[in-house]
Design brief:
8 helices; binds guanosine-5'-triphosphate; binds magnesium ion; 4 strands; 4-stranded antiparallel sheet; nucleoside diphosphate kinase activity; about 15% strand; Alpha-Beta Plaits; about 40% helix
Length: about 150
Amino acid sequence: VDQTYIMVKPDGVQRGLVGEIITRFEKKGFKLTGLKLFKCSKDLAEEHYKDLKGKSFFPKLIDYITSGPVVCMAWEGVGVVASARKLIGSTDPLQAEPGTIRGDLAVQTGRNIVHGSDSPDNGKREIGLWFNEAELVHWTPAQAAWLRE
Ligand code: GTP
Ligand code: MG
């Protein structure tokens, strides 16, 4: 079963969108396995976005992600990585389709309110980066039989 790392970025927290964003994934039918409010260090932000090191916007990106609390989430489910990316929408919120989180709630790439892992391997890597094993909960939702045959 796939796992993805979803994070409400500092702008999403400051704008009071945490509940709205969690609700999108809950309603879809994925399983929450980790959740915390967290102020991340520069080192962690740089490790998380290491593939973007060298991009002109990298320093601004690190300032943005470390500028306030973020909400870290681990979600589990068949196909959750790709589906979460669809729910989130395009990187540039002006290009993101209405109905997606960024398409409905944001206007600029540098303030796009939420992160989602881009592959199952990165989902595992990022959950390992942001959570301790003891913070992850393995449980069976009561509605499981009503979500999948
Ligand atoms: P994440 O889910 O946050 O990883 O976004 P993404 O996968 O849609 O985009 P990508 O991984 O390519 O970039 C990571 C983040 O860097 C984006 O979500 C933006 O916050 C930021 N970013 C990407 N491109 C730009 C840019 O051209 N300008 C600025 N200011 N920020 C950018
Ligand atoms: Mg990305």
